[in-house]
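hey m, so remember when u said the tokens were messed up on ur end? i reran from scratch. heres the input so u can diff it against urs
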Amino acid sequence: MSAVVCKDVTQHFGDLTALDSVSLEIHTGEIFGIIGPNGAGKTTLLSRIEGLATPTSGSIEVLGLDPIADAHALSLRTGIQLQQAALPPRLKVGEVLELFSSFFPRTQPWRPLLERLGIAAKTVSYVDRLSGGERQRVFIALALLHEPELVFLDELTTALDPQARLAMWDVVRDIRDDGTTVVLTTHYMEEAEALCDRVGIIDHGRLIAMDTVPALISAHGGPATLQLELAQEAQESLSGLEGVTGVERGHGATGTPTATVHGTGGFAQRVLEHLNSCGVTVHAMSTTAPSLEDVFLNLTGRSMREER
């Protein structure tokens, strides 16, 4: 059974179309990323899936239920970490977990949960004394307290430092590996590449692409590049190799002849095998592969950095 099914979900705010006929299906047991720039409609879509608001039109099923009509039943089966949330500052972490445990008929022991999330030592710390990463882990603990089948994470790592972001990625992987379906939104393309089994790209309220990360990069990322330092005469035969789409000749900082080879598929291996068979020595080599950032640029004509 699919965890989430959206069909032609549309949301209007006056003359603004925040969501434009979005249809997608999220598989049980995967990490699914809803990605795109700030203001693209990610949080609007997620809030409709979570049942926090009703879309203007279209239909949504979450675990086979209606997120509005079956809100109470779904609250026992789903967990939500909101983009913006707050807790009473003078409560301690353990007190918060104890309080939220009373909201559900069945919860897992929260002390082992904090241990899993790496904040067991913060049990007696006040919430307002925690770092950004520690506070996010508390919100994740609250979302996982009742062992949900599906958890929503909205812009989980925004404003975290790089070290805290990497640690949070490990937490998300552990949640998925424990059998929970994860739906997350992010405007960090490298985060989606690192975490997501599949992604849907939202731009101006429209779902413009959806697939696995490798499939999206293969279809829309453009060519990879292979940068070589080698003799000028050895570069002449590279253009005709299978998978090579172009060769740019130049010189490095020391005046050494260089070749920047563009291509698709396994072109790099074929280039190196060809040079080896010709007895050509490669003095230096580097490769650049397309990324989700390139996918977004090629699909929309603008970069995520411009949007931010």
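this time it looks ok to me. The radius of gyration is 24 Å. if urs says something different then somethings off w ur setup not the seq
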